[in-house]
């Protein structure tokens, strides 16, 4: 294992009613002016927004709404939120929704306290913000696990770059399975696959030998796969939703990454494809993963074969690579079984040579990947996804 220091300050309130338990405990620590951030309006249609506003106002808080955060949050939206936070003198941010809302607010929290442009600070100067408006996350859409860390991914529409940012680490998160019942089944499955992807992207990092983090990872992957099948049969099963909410948190709270240099090459490819096409993140990952893994397995056949046996229960082939490919076949079949897209055409995204070439040329190459891909091989992988 790699050397590590592990510290985990995010307080998690988990279970049905967790949102209200969290607010009862945390309201005294929020200050007077609270920004309530959300996405396309589902929390208003479900009535959650009004309940949150009533709870906050009853505690003497002034509530400032910040809505319309899109599924691939833009840099322009971040700057809009930062301006609003400064103008309104916001003391605390509550982000209610899923990963896009959380990512946007993490960077809003940092930018509001900066005199410089955060993109220039982080990607030009190599710096990082140190002061933040404190924030918390109320999860209504699980999958990203974004409530568990300080990382964010923001799209710059002018440059077509979907870049990572460091922002605020949430003070607390409410993981309330009841709140996820308003999410469409398609979005639920997309988020669930994102969780599985996070686990795989961590597992296939280095070192490539089996260790305690990998064993924990295998358990979470198997739990996600089993629960996705259960949700397909009964989307209203609250026990399964509870399991998923915790799976999502486990995938991104750092536990599975201890001692690992993660891969996340598939995420880098999808981020750039999403920057050019604005397609759904989890569904894009479902399209790309099997094709990418067929290119990576020959570089790490033993690791992929172990994953095939431990996660998918495939029978061993004559070689590790044969076993690995059987595991990738099982992943591809599972994606189809879950009703997720298997091609860019099914996803509804542009797959022209021009777009795919731009994606290939701009994709970040990750340190933990089994092999260093070239732009030409990335383009080949992307064309296989058509």
Kindly list the characteristics that best describe this protein.
globular; single chain; 16 helices; 386 residues; two-stranded antiparallel sheet; 11% strand; 8 strands; alpha/beta; 6-stranded parallel sheet
Structure description:
- With 386 residues, this protein is an alpha/beta fold.
- It has helices at residues 18-26, 42-45, 48-58, 75-88, 99-111, 118-124, 185-203, 212-233, 238-252, 265-277, 281-296, 301-312, 320-337, 344-347, 353-362, 375-384, and strands spanning 11-14, 33-37, 62-66, 92-97, 135-139, 151-156, 161-166, 172-175.
- The strands form two sheets. It has a six-stranded parallel sheet, sandwiched between helices. Strands 6-7 form a two-stranded antiparallel ribbon.
- It is globular and about 70 Å long.
- The model has no long low-confidence stretch (mean pLDDT 95).
Side-by-side strand order of the widest sheet: 1-8-5-4-2-3
Q: What is the straight-line distance between the termini?
A: 38 Å
Please mark out the parts with pLDDT under 50 across 5 or more consecutive residues, or reply none. Answer: none
Taking the sheet with the most strands, its summary is: 6 strands, parallel
Mean pLDDT metric? 95
How many beta-strand runs? 8
